[in-house]
Design brief:
alpha+beta; 72 residues; 33% helix; disordered N terminus; globular
């Protein structure tokens, strides 16, 4: 899979969100990567645009929820 977007973390403990296309299908995924941990698929869409749009909307919500759980 190729990375087509690498959005920089907004805080040091935030994961990097990457958009990748599956080589075997027309599926675009958003993966969260955090140094020292395995990558985690957090969204799957049918187009690159859908995955990129999700980062702007749902990705930010996902990051906030992750921060809330980490700080709880």
């Amino acid at each position: 899979m190729n990375n087509v977007l690498d959005s920089a973390p907004t805080r040091p403990a935030d994961p990097t969100l990457l958009v990748r296309k599956a080589p075997h299908a027309q599926v675009w995924s958003v993966w969260a990567t955090l140094e020292g941990t395995d990558a985690e698929e957090i969204f799957e869409g049918s187009s690159e645009k859908e995955a990129l749009d999700w980062i702007v909307a749902g990705g930010q919500t996902w990051l906030e929820e992750r921060r809330r759980r980490r700080n709880a």
